[in-house]
Amino acid sequence: NAKETGRILLVDYSDVQNLAITTIDAARFLHDGGWDSTLRYFLTAANKSDTIVVVDSKERKLIAKIPVDEIPHPGRGANFVHK
Hints:
The chain has one helix at about 1-5; strands spanning about 5-10, 20-25, 30-35, 40-45, 50-55, 60-65. It starts with a helix and ends in a 16-residue tail after the last strand. It is built from one helix and six strands, in the order αββββββ. It has a four-stranded antiparallel beta sheet. A two-stranded antiparallel sheet has the order 1-2. The relative contact order is 0.21. By secondary structure, the chain is mainly beta.
């Protein structure tokens, strides 16, 4: 399972005959995640390291590893809007 390796695999399905797979080093033991309201950023929890990992799906790269105080759980319903 890729999540235990600490890697995120992004797959571009726009040409199914020539899939483009991007491997992003993140943090080990990825658990749960979800998209932000723009559907550009994916946030996922790395429970064993109390970290939230943020991936920019447009740029196809890791943009942040955010330390948190306790086990993170950024799944569905965790979105918020900045004003």
